[in-house]
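Anyone? Bumping this.
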Amino acid sequence: MRTLPTGQYIPGHSLLHKLDARVKILCLMLFIAAIIGAASIWGYTLVLVTIAGLILLSKLPIRSVVGSIRRMGLFLLVIFMMNALFFDQENPLASWWIFHLSSGGMKQGFSVVGNVVLILMLGNLLTMTTSPTQVTTALESLIKPLALIGVPTEEVAMIISVAIQFIPTLMAETESIKRAQLARGARFESKKLTERAASFIPLVVPIFISAIRRADELALAMEARGYRNAKNRTKRKKEPLVLHDYSALTISASICLIQFLLLR
Amino acid sequence: MSITIENLSYSYVQHSGEKIAALKGVSCSIEVGDFVGIMGPTGCGKTTLLQLLAGLLSPTSGHIYLHGEDINAKGYDRNSLRQTIGVVFQDPEYQLFATTVEKDVAFGLKHSGLCRDEINANVKWALETMGFEFEKIRHQSPLALSGGEKRRVAIAGVLATKPKILMFDEPIAGLDPYGRQSFLQFITQMNQSGTTVIMVSHNIEALCEYTRHLLVLEQGKLIDSGATRDVFGRRKQMVSSAFGQTEAQKIVTMLSEGALALSPAIVTYDDLLSALKQELTRGGMG
Amino acid sequence: MIVEGKQICFSYDLGGTSFALQNVDLSIAQGEFVTILGCNGSGKSTLVKQINALLPLQQGELTVAQIDVRNEQDVWLLRRICGMVFQNPDNQFVSSVVAEDIAFGLENYEVPRREIPDRVQAALELVEMEGYEQRAPNTLSGGQKQRVALAGVLALEPEIIIFDEATAMLDPSGRQEVIKIMHKLHKAGKTIIAITHYVEEAVTADKIILMHQGRVLSCGKPQAILTNLELMGEAGMMVPMPVRLYYDLQQAGVHLNRCPLTDEELVEEICQLRSKT
């Protein structure tokens, strides 16, 4: 069984679990801005301390929050190398062909990787303390303003909800199709890049067809249960925001603001 | 190509951290040309065993010997394993992807080392074995065929490598009576032409009527194995629930409660019919 | 009659050369347990999809609970009265939480939010899945999935429930779970229409509709249809084992009193015959 790259939802009763999902999503966006805006040691320290505090507040084991990031190790290394080797062509510490290693580049590399890791950890904190349903309900709420420019927000929300529900099923089916093709002699680990890309056709085509077939069947089932459009349906309960929600928003906004002030 | 399994175990870790032991210390052997059934409730490890035998999974411990060689040993020719063993999973029609039937069936032969002509010959043979007219079907799109035709093309794809061992995972699940019968007859024909056949199934009657040997799994352990008739005979004595007994056996049990004792060796419909004929014509009835 | 149909014809290709349904007459009384039996391609699924207007009625007449299926404005009422459970357990769920999935149908009919939790609970109780409210449907077994799908249908309190080969993809224990609930619902007064090609499931029906290549071959009680070798053979169906035994014994000169449909009836007949000596 393979896990999703983001952290799996773990039910709990911490403060982070209790926060409204919409607030969490908005705070995440504010924190991402804060992280990207952090340009000095003080900036980074503030962010790191806040994240450490959040992990403690969530009462989740640090292992799980950090775990999925380890799997991204290779990807992060590539980002680092790209920065270290291509950033500064003027004052290289060492040169070879098109690669120019520079101290500025390495600093930039660290900075970018650091940002990615911090953002991933925050993302993990969000998905681990918020159930998929809460996330989709929050998204539905947050995209409502788009209705003003003609986006069919209720339909989009239904699509997101159904799609999320299908992810485990489709992943399991990908595994079984992969098995069946391997059993037939398929090779997925070819050295040549073009061959490797082509080797995914026996995986992608069947899954695509399967997804369409499932969508067809589901549409029929939805109609049989009286679905006609996304508008004339009982609306979800609107939970009002409480004190800790407002506090979380205020604190996140402040941190973001401080970062930009520190930038000057 | 005989198969010997020695103390085979397989465990995996779920994303929740839980360790699941799918197979625990299974040992048995399958002779060349046999027709073996694998039986057991859902979750007993049947599919895992099949995948291990096909070399799709590596065992946590234990060995699988194909014709005396350990298939998981370093340096074992994986490619030849793919050509020797053919696996038809449940709903095989879902694996079709190519632009023509011919290309889809030939897919498994890409790395076989055979030349163009030999590949074409194999593809033709496989499609004809599955009841198709080669020239009519070869250029059609596999995705435009009917459900039954798709399934036959998918199986032709597995047959194309002319495997010596064929494995089927729930091949008749969801088929109607005609479908079931013709499929089982097809598998029997393959077996009669020398292919070793291993079939995982829920269908007790099918296992009883067609297989010569049975492996019974429960919660990852091999709890019984042997000649089909003998295994069913033992199931009747061992098991309190009706699972794993043929309908004929269930009827015999009910008759014994109604004070008509028939032989406990009755397993198949034909056994029951002859026994009843004997019992009820004695004393000149009817 | 809760379902009345006359001369229903349907073709998937609108050129009209091959017909999935040909001149089908249909008559189902309220509270009946009807099994539609036939091979793949016999038109069973096409027929039932006309009943809740998932497929449009092309030719003929069909009324369900006095509603003409052709009335577009009544379609939503029709689908509330007539619920359907499909063959593939996985492709019926819209949510990753059982309670929310069951609420889907209620939301579609704008049932007030405050009534929904109780109706969801009642539906779960009917299918004997209390306690599963917060589970994800994809973590359940096949039989459990179908029961949750059924709960989603039952929440709307339908009069008629159609099972479109709902047991075909399940293992034996899953099938038993679903069949048990079907009978429970029937006892509670619901009209059940079950499509299957498993002959054993037809034995307990009030009425069997035997279909073959788009036509109704026969319609009647199980005793009349399942014991008719020619009819069953024509439809491509196998008779239940007790029926097969009855005829094979007859050929050997052993005559049972009546043709048994179930193992229990067979045993009874044999013991009766035995006791006559």
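Late reply, but here is one note on the structure posted above: Chain B has two domains: 3-228, 246-286.
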